[in-house]
């Protein structure tokens, strides 16, 4: 696909060069800065000054001013011209001789320095000498298969190296020590310093004119077979794909990022970045194409023209206007080396953004998203395409010049609803991704408000997620939009996020009451209860507590029972006030008291008593309605019994008075048990309820955390009730037998044998007796074990006590007395502090002697 990369502008007209002399032809050209040199077939050199002019319309023209011309006097064509600006010298090849002339006056140097025997020559643009006051020249010598290297100074030349080639060279280019040579049948790379060569690819110079051109550091462009422009490095490899030329290319030039080629009829322009042909310019009779410091000059035999490159930015914009995004991006990346860094970054970001909108318009959303991200697009540019999404308070103004050609989404999609829906889905996804990144910095309100509007319009499930998380939705715009789309529950969330809980609750209550319709949540009532539970505004709680209780007492009471523990512990809402307010709602009141007593475990008599009374009243109310125990009655009875058994804080006599005259015998028994009136309790269980299992359970739970004697006393009481002499009920007898046989360990066997009737057989009580014997033996053995352990422990303590007194003293018949040196005949001895042992009589004699000695010495001292 074509792009206008260059414009052909005339530089030197035929009349300026040759007038009416048709026999004069241009043989070669050289350009250095504004200086243009032309060599002709009649041995003349012409010097022109080129002035570039730009019109107000941006059109570029060149004005050539002839400075002078010089006849070399050899009557031979001037074959080649090369300028050495550092030396102010022009190297002229004519008649196989390179002459040094002054660039300004075209006079030969006074020394007459020249290089003879040159077929063609080129300059080393990557010199190895390091001398700024000389240039390195490489020539193909008239000698067969010979290349020569020279150093050319201001007024002298010096040969450096002579290299022989395997075949006759036809063309050469130089980079450092490397020569790229077109031989008769192939291209090679030759290091003239080391002599190492590398074959590239075959080529027939007899069929086509070879082209060898240095295009960069250690890289060359070659005319390859099949009309290919081949790239090759000094290592003999190609780092770029070839470009497709015509078969008869006669010249090539480089103007990055383009390679320009000349054939008999056209100038073709190929991109080095993607190797595609970008432009074709008709140009007949051309035979010279060269580039000079970024300026591409082409010439016929009669005139000189300049290929003026259009600004890369304009080329890129033209590509974008043609929706050729990939080519535009490739060209933009390639332009990096020709544009200052800061300017390039600004330009490249804008190009990425433009490319993103082109892809977006083509519904290529993945590509568009990546381009928007890479180009750091102000996301409001995208939002502004969608009508009414930006908040009314937004100060955003679209980029100028515009990044795209669309007024809004309607124009872009041409009213196609399916395309519009896809575009909205993309924006939802994109905004959701960027809202938490640096892209959103500075305009989070615009992004979140737009996202909310999209979610609401599409009935998207993420609307609620947006509102319950951190967001920057503008209240005014968002509220109006949610109300428009009848998203009342979401509107309540918005109010709540902005601290307007009263407005939120008012909306939600209307939804539950059916005043407005919104099916977002089927459990909205439960949500309101939960909301009030954690609401810190007590006024709102009190305002709506009756509403929630009227809907459902057992659920509604959760606004009090499930409040945060910290708040309940601080008693921010007084429990007594709550109980008072719940008087009209008995089920809720019971639930709340259960919360205080059973969950929070508040040890206050009034709460425990109140809860027991409420249980009792509810049970009696239910019993008055139906004689059968329904599920609710059974559940309440179990709760009442559990409370009466486990709590010690309620007023026992008060509740017992309430129960009197009812059929709540089990509860009466529990209360008598709390009063330690166990006989009454057991009498009720045995004689009125006839629930023998309950009687046994009564003994067990009443003796929990009590000693064994208390437990035995309860079981003996129960046995006495069963064996009361005034009764002869067989059921009681069997209950007594079962009690003894099942709980043998709980009885004193001796006392039991005293009270059981003599008529009972041993076989009847065999389980009890076996258990009693087993228990007795077990008790005896456990006592013996405990005694043994105690004795062992006592022995250990005695041993420790002995150890604390000192180390043991061993006495045998082999030990002798330290005084008389005789062995010990009996286990009686005296031990001195130094460890020595003596007979008792020896110790006594020694003690007597020491006393006498002490007395004698004292008498003599007195004398």
Automatic annotation (TrEMBL):
CHCR repeats lie at residues 563-727. It is found in: Cytoplasm. GO terms for molecular function: SMAD binding; transforming growth factor beta receptor binding. PROSITE patterns: CHCR, CNH. InterPro entries: Clathrin_H-chain/VPS_repeat, CNH_dom, Vam6/VPS39/TRAP1, VPS39/TGF_beta_rcpt-assoc_1, VPS39/TGFA1_Znf. The keyword Transport applies. It holds the Pfam family Vps39_1. Keywords: Cytoplasm, Protein transport, Transport. The keyword DNA repair does not apply. Residues 23-296 form the CNH domain. GO terms for cellular component: CORVET complex; early endosome; membrane. This is Transforming growth factor beta receptor associated protein 1. It comes from Strigops habroptila (Kakapo). GO terms for biological process: autophagy; endosomal vesicle fusion; endosome to lysosome transport; intracellular protein transport; regulation of DNA-templated transcription; signal transduction. PANTHER family: CNH DOMAIN CONTAINING (PTHR12894), TRANSFORMING GROWTH FACTOR-BETA RECEPTOR-ASSOCIATED PROTEIN 1 (PTHR12894:SF27).
């Amino acid at each position: 696909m074509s792009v206008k990369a260059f414009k052909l502008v005339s530089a030197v007209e035929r009349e300026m060069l040759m007038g009416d002399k048709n026999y004069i032809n241009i043989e070669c050209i050289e350009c250095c800065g504004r200086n243009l040199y032309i060599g002709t077939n009649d041995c003349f050199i012409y010097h022109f000054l080129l002035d570039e002019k730009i019109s107000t319309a941006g059109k570029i023209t060149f004005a050539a001013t002839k400075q002078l011309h010089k006849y070399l006097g050899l009557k031979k064509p001037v074959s080649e011209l090369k300028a050495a600006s550092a030396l102010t010298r022009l190297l002229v090849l004519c008649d196989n001789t390179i002459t040094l002339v002054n660039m300004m006056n075209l006079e030969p140097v006074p020394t007459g320095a020249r290089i003879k025997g040159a077929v063609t020559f080129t300059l080393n643009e990557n010199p190895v000498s390091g001398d700024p006051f000389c240039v390195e020249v490489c020539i193909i010598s008239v000698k067969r298969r010979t290349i020569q290297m020279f150093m050319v100074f201001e007024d002298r030349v010096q040969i450096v190296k002579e290299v022989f080639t395997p075949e006759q060279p036809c063309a050469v280019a130089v980079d450092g020590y490397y020569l790229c040579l077109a031989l008769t049948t192939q291209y090679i790379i030759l290091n003239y310093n080391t002599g190492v060569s590398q074959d590239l690819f075959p080529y027939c110079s007899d069929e086509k004119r070879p082209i060898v051109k240095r295009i960069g550091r250690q890289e060359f462009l070659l005319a390859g077979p099949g009309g290919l422009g081949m790239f090759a490095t000094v290592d003999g490899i190609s780092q770029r794909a070839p470009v497709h030329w015509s078969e008869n290319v006669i010249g090539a030039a480089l103007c990055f990022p383009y390679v320009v080629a000349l054939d008999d009829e056209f100038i073709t322009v190929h991109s080095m970045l993607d190797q595609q042909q970008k432009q074709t310019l008709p140009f007949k009779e051309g035979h010279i194409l060269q580039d000079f410091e970024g300026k591409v000059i082409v010439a016929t035999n009669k005139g000189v023209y300049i290929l003026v490159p259009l600004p890369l930015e304009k080329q890129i914009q033209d590509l974008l206007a043609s929706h050729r995004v990939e080519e535009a991006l490739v060209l933009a990346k390639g332009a990096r080396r020709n544009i200052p860094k800061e300017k390039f970054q600004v330009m490249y970001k804008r190009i990425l953004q433009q490319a993103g909108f082109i892809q977006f318009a083509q519904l290529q959303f993945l590509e568009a998203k990546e381009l928007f991200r890479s180009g750091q697009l102000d996301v409001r540019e995208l939002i502004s395409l969608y009508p009414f999404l930006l908040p009314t308070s937004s100060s955003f103004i679209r980029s100028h010049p515009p990044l795209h050609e669309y007024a809004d989404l309607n124009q872009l999609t041409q009213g196609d609803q399916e395309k519009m829906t896809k575009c909205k889905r993309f924006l939802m996804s994109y905004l959701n991704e960027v809202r938490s990144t640096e892209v959103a910095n500075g305009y989070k309100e615009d992004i979140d408000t737009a996202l909310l509007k999209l979610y609401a319009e599409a009935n998207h499930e993420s609307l609620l997620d947006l509102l319950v998380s951190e967001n920057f939705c503008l209240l005014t715009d968002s509220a109006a939009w949610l109300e428009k789309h009848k998203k009342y529950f979401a509107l309540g969330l918005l109010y709540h996020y902005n601290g307007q809980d009263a407005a939120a609750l008012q909306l939600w209550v209307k939804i539950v009451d059916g005043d407005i319709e919104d099916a977002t949540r089927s459990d909205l009532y439960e949500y309101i209860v939960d909301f009030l539970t954690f609401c810190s505004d007590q006024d709102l709680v009190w305002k709506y507590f009756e509403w929630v209780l009227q809907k459902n007492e057992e659920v509604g009471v959760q606004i009090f029972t499930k409040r945060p523990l910290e708040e309940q512990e601080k008693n921010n809402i007084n429990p007594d006030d709550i109980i008072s307010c719940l008087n009209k709602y008995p089920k809720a009141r019971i639930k709340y008291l259960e919360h205080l007593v059973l969950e929070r475990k508040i040890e206050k008599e009034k709460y425990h008593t109140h809860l027991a009374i409420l249980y009792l009243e509810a049970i009696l109310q239910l019993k008055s309605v139906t004689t059968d125990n329904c599920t609710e009655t059974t559940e309440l009875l179990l709760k009442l019994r559990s409370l009466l058994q486990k709590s010690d804080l309620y007023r026992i006599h008060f509740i017992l008075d309430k129960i009197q005259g009812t059929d709540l015998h089990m509860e009466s028994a529990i209360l008598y048990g709390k009063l330690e009136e166990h006989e009454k309790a057991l009498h009720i269980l045995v004689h009125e309820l006839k629930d023998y299992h309950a009687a046994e359970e009564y003994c067990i739970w009443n003796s929990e955390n009590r000693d064994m004697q208390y437990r035995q006393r309860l079981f003996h009481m129960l046995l006495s009730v069963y064996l009361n002499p005034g009764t002869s009920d067989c059921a009681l007898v069997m209950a007594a037998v079962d009690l003894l046989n099942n709980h043998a360990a709980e009885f004193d066997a001796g006392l039991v044998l005293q009270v059981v009737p003599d008529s009972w057989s041993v076989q009847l009580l065999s389980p009890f007796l076996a258990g009693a014997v087993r228990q007795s033996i077990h008790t005896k053995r456990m006592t013996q074990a405990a005694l043994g352990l105690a004795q062992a422990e006592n022995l250990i303590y005695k041993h420790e006590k002995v150890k604390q007194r000192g180390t043991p003293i061993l006495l045998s018949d082999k030990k002798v007395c330290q005084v008389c040196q005789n062995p010990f005949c009996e286990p009686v001895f005296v031990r001195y502090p130094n460890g020595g042992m003596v007979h008792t009589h020896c110790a006594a004699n020694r003690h007597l002697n020491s006393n006498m000695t002490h007395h004698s010495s004292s008498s003599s001292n007195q004398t």
